[in-house]
Amino acid sequence: MIVTSATEAVTSGRQYLPTSSLGSAGSPNQSLLPLTATVNKNDHLEVGGCDVPSLVRRFGSPLYILDEETLRRACRQYHQAFQRYYPGESLVIYASKAWNCLAVCAIVASEGLGIDVVSGGELYTALRAGMNPEVIYFHGNNKSIDELQFAVEVGCTIVVDNWLELETLARMQDALQPPTRILLRLTPGIECHTHDYIRTGHLDSKFGFDPDQLEDVFAFVSQQPALECVGLHAHIGSQIFELQPHQDLTMVMMQWMSKAATYNLPVRELDIGGGLGIRYTEQDDPPSIDEWVRVICEGVVAACETLQMPLPKLIAEPGRSLIGSACVTAYTVGSQKVIPNLRTYVTVDGGMSDNPRPITYQSIYRAVIANRMSAEMTEMVAVAGKHCESGDIVIKEARLPQTKSGDTLVVMGTGAYNYSMASNYNRLPRPAAVLVNAGEADVILKRESYQDLIQHDCLPEKLVEKG
């Protein structure tokens, strides 16, 4: 049996698949599974034309499975929506902290997107993947001297976050070099309903210049021939379902662009960040990519008309909504612990080292048993990780079919902040990742080995026992 809607999935007691219409034309961030997901004749979950249990047998588990079609379609929907709704120049930039590796950077580059990096390592990866430095924007609230020098040398745009960084860049530049392109990050004081750890637009934030500092900042930058301030940036948070805060942001930012122009700064770019949420459970109802872009564009156009300003180059930095729904993580079920009248724990062979979001943000996920997709969901269980930590619970309440050791359990929506936040806690090797498309699966991240775990360990000679 193939479930045709999320509502039917809940009421029928069967496992979830996206609707056929969602799979062909929907907004990827509104889908629980990748857009290519289906059930094959073996009653197995299939993603990108690849049988998921077979992928686990071939590549092992835990296994990140990234659907290339879903990622590319999200890139195109962002690009096409800006073309449709914004009469000026625009640029979509992938916030690569969501998942930064060579293959992902190469895919978004091939779709015409720029990239947002927040460290020298992310910058290096983007460059090695072939990303043009002219569309790389370097963020971060505590960039090192070496990172700033690296960014200046390759010619990317630096999003300046604080006074120390601003003054350092002003001193760093060689008189014979062209000025360093910078954006100034502003904390706009806009609240949104999301987790405290991922709200970045309110005033009590470690990021950006506060509004009462900006005129001093504009005055300083206007006197620095080594710096070319081309625009302003703000980001109000992540996993946001509301549209009004983003609309409010456009007017705040355009007002500050108007003020910056009075200091003769060549401000022409407005970077409004990202933050659009994705659907992790049936209860989540995020706006579509198209809706989010339309609100942003209409807000900027209206603000420009009110302030009688020319349209800026409009930049957006989606991360989670580009890649979050494009990936699932496949685990192998192990032991169970049944506590009568209390809880049943079903254990998988991964957990907080490959997905730290539940223990960090209390994030909620949805799972299926991929080798028995038509099985009735008869149990409410806790999906537990294998780490030596009581809080290592992948899903606290998961409605599943009766599970058995060896089942393939798939957690949905794991493309954002899973691999990128993975660790070697308990010395577990980090998982492999495969890119699936049209029945082909390519390794994009090798599974770490035990030897990889100790490759940077150093054992002083005096600790080596003499035979």
From TrEMBL:
One of its GO terms (molecular function) is pyridoxal phosphate binding. Its cofactor is pyridoxal 5'-phosphate. This is Diaminopimelate decarboxylase. The gene is lysA. The keyword Plastid does not apply. The active site is at C388. Belongs to the Orn/Lys/Arg decarboxylase class-II family. LysA subfamily. Pfam families: Orn_Arg_deC_N. It catalyses: meso-2,6-diaminopimelate + H(+) = L-lysine + CO2. NCBIfam families: lysA. The keyword Amino-acid biosynthesis applies. The modification N6-(pyridoxal phosphate)lysine is found at K97. Homodimer. Residues 71-323 form the Orn/DAP/Arg decarboxylase 2 N-terminal domain. Pathway: Amino-acid biosynthesis; L-lysine biosynthesis via DAP pathway; L-lysine from DL-2,6-diaminopimelate: step 1/1. Substrate binds at R320, R357, Y361, E389, Y417. Specifically catalyzes the decarboxylation of meso-diaminopimelate (meso-DAP) to L-lysine. InterPro entries: Ala_racemase/Decarboxylase_C (IPR009006), DAP_deCOOHase_LysA (IPR002986), De-COase2_CS (IPR022657), De-COase2_N (IPR022644), Orn/DAP/Arg_de-COase (IPR000183), PLP-binding_barrel (IPR029066). PANTHER family: DIAMINOPIMELATE DECARBOXYLASE, GROUP IV DECARBOXYLASE. GO terms for biological process: lysine biosynthetic process via diaminopimelate. Pyridoxal 5'-phosphate binds at G275, E317, P318, G319, R320, Y417. HAMAP family: LysA (MF_02120). Its EC number is 4.1.1.20.
